[in-house]
Amino acid sequence: MITIITGTDTGVGKTVATAALAVRSGPGTIVVKPAQTGVGTDEPDISVVARLAGCEVAEFTRLEDPLAPDTAARRRGIGIPPISEHAGRIRGLARTRGTVIVEGAGGLLVRLDTEGGTLLDLATGLAVDHPVRVYVVTRAGLGTLNHTELTVNALRSRNLEPAGLVLGAVPEALGLAEECNLAELPRVTGVPIVAAIPDGAGGLEPEQFRARAGSWLADRPSFRAGYAVS
């Protein structure tokens, strides 16, 4: 199985959600980051996943500037692998691993190479000969309905039906917008909320993170559980 993790935007909690999904997937899982930018500014996403989930990881391309991958590459005048090469490497991993989880960069249409290839292109290509499951990580607060529906519609334009929505960083105290969006997100998208990751979950010790991840990804996730992150 190949699982694609995309976000409605940058900073929505995609990396921590990826780590939680990797925990649930169990042994034999590898998490792949096709393109990592901003190297040296913060802990790389793939390192966060490895630390929290304790799974095998792989990173294909590293770029210095904290920009979209194609912008970061063109700014430095360097070439980066095309989407087709990423797809080939992921297919190879899928032959020997139980689950391959692919974390995108930013949103679904962020360009991952200098030829215009996006995570949507990567998912579409992989789905030709592999079962592909796509999760959309989104915010709970104001503004999320538009961004989430646009992302879901882009996936459906390629005949990719999202497996579920993941709330990437749910605050402990839900405001009016968050309370309403718990019902509105599934209503406007037709996609269920399958996980709710509490804000601050990435700050847990790895053992705590792995122990609690199951409650965040339950069939009926609790939106107020798991906030003791100290």
UniProtKB/TrEMBL annotation:
Active site per the UniProt annotation: K33
Example of a GO MF term: magnesium ion binding
This protein's pathway: Cofactor biosynthesis; biotin biosynthesis; biotin from 7,8-diaminononanoate: step 1/2
EC number: 6.3.3.3
Subcellular location: Cytoplasm
Binding-site residues for ATP, renumbered to this chain: G11, V12, G13, K14, T15, V16, D45, E103, G104, A105, G106
Catalytic reaction list: (7R,8S)-7,8-diammoniononanoate + CO2 + ATP = (4R,5S)-dethiobiotin + ADP + phosphate + 3 H(+)
Function: Catalyzes a mechanistically unusual reaction, the ATP-dependent insertion of CO2 between the N7 and N8 nitrogen atoms of 7,8-diaminopelargonic acid (DAPA, also called 7,8-diammoniononanoate) to form a ureido ring.
HAMAP family: BioD (MF_00336)
Record-given protein name: ATP-dependent dethiobiotin synthetase BioD
Encoding gene, per UniProt annotation: bioD
